[in-house]
# Entry
Amino acid sequence: MKKIVMALTLATLGGAANAAPLNLDFSKGYVAAMGSYQRLDKVRFGDVDSFGAHFAYGLPVTEVLNLEATSFVTYQPRSVDNKADLSYGLGLDLLVMQRNPDFGTFLLAGAGAIREDISRVESTAPYVNIGAGVIGRIPMVEKLSYRAELRGVADFNKDGAPGRNKDVFIEPRINVGLQYGFGFGTAVPADSDGDGVLDPTDLCPN
# Structure
């Protein structure tokens, strides 16, 4: 898992400054809907596997930065008593993008508030998260892209495991789903030989 995050980090930081334009109209936003899997801290009362959904509305600020408003819900089953815990939250993330014509990688960091109902104890607490991911075009579908990301979520909640004397929970979350872009422009033609003349009008493009 660490190797995947490191690889995405190096690819994003290495290419962000000189990234090729993504075929997007930067004046328009996008929405994303993803299913999620979260590996819970063992000190919590539920099982370690939890499932949920993650939603985002994003707006490209520049060719490198995106700002996203997010919401999520997580279902945490408890096999010991056949019941479940529930958490949901709102947040704001900043994404650093490496944009290419058909796909891109990104790093993200953000914060928000989470509402948790753990063993009938309800509480609200702040959280922060960092992560990395990839987004790419689906062939023959103009405005739809696939999206996958890995996040590390730190939940600062003294009631996150009532009676267990712990108030910080750091847990990995995987989100996989689809993203829909509201604005799409025309892809910028390549300049293969770097002479300043775009390939479609270059008599000798290579």
In short: The mean pLDDT is 77. The chain is about 5% helix and 55% strand.
